[in-house]
Design goal:
This protein is α/β, with parallel strands linked by helices and 422 residues long. It is 37% helix and 14% strand. It is built from 13 helices and 15 strands.
Length: 422
Amino acid sequence: MRFENTLDFAKSLDAKDVLKEYRSAFHYPQLNGKEVIYFTGNSLGLQPKNAQTYVDEIMKDWAQLAVEGHFYAKKPWWDYHERLAAPLAKVVGAKTKEVSVMNTLTVNLHFLMVSFYRPTNKRFKILCEEKAFPSDQYMLQSQAKFHGYDPKEIIVEVKKREGEHFWRTEDFIAKIDELGDELALVLLGGVNYYNGQVLDIQNITRAGKRVGAMVGWDLAHAAGNIALELHDWNVDFAAWCSYKYMNSGPGNASGVFVNERYLNRKDIPRFEGWWGTQKDKRFLMEPEFEPMPNADAWQVSNAPILSLAPYLASLQMFEEVGMTALIQKQKLLTSYLEYILTEIDKEVDSTFEIITPKDRGCQLSVFLHGEGRALFDYLMAQGVITDWREPNVIRLAPAPFYCSFEDMFEFGQILKKGILTK
């Protein structure tokens, strides 16, 4: 498609957008009486308008039924989480039994590492990417120390090549082969939070399995954003948050994936609690743990129903739309944003460097060479809600559910004015 940096062209793309009606399904922040241009769905997605209905339903059941809501609510609480598994499985490319919802992201990664990081005298090293999201770094370091290791000796980071802003798949594979039978675990971010790069999950997983390592993925920036086939790619485990591209609300519950080969087994080490025991025996209070035959076996405590309600509300829209349509719009929308940035760069005395490679979801990370924090502050004051990362990078995430092509054009005009009038 041949793009144009005009309002009419942007509006023509919006007119042909099959998802355009979903913009009105979200609450949009207002600034000076006008809807903002929202680029931070990679940090917190907008609130679906139907979320309030789902939460109110639980509040009403709680008021009218109290404890009986566990079994007699419109959507009984004791199995509320099960309603999320099937739509989530479609989002991440899994079998329904391989998916569950519980806790929050880093908590779930810790719980999953109980099962999937089992170091031995020979096989004990952990592979991750350079400068992983800080929470992942802290999690891995603490797991190493918990097992009695010096993190500096067992955590191996794959670095970007000198002068490059992205990782190369061959470098991950080469390091995996080099570590060989010393490698216990590969744990990487599926989409890097800083540069927006989508890692080659399929081939990196294949390499890890070839040398006998467990392979897990932090999909915080991937779930609901990119095409995933966790089961077919032979991933051992994964976890993701729900409040970015999946629009479930701040700090909300996390999803997990556990490959079916680890299900319905008593010999898998894990931290266990009563919500992971067999459903038909849960309220018999028996002394022996009988694991659920699905990923729910990793659940420990009662599901947080009020947190799950807005997640379920959002997942209903994912069910309606499907990942194929979302990704189709995501690619076009992000490409148009890239074009706008390139055109504005020609018109101003600055240099924009997009550090996100073509392997990406709906995020562009942009070095604003010659510009500083003042430009970011100007954008925010003009109603462009974006994200600043030192030293001079802004992250732009045009989420396809609620961002429009006109947003991309308007952003370009505000950006140009902010540079020319500084």
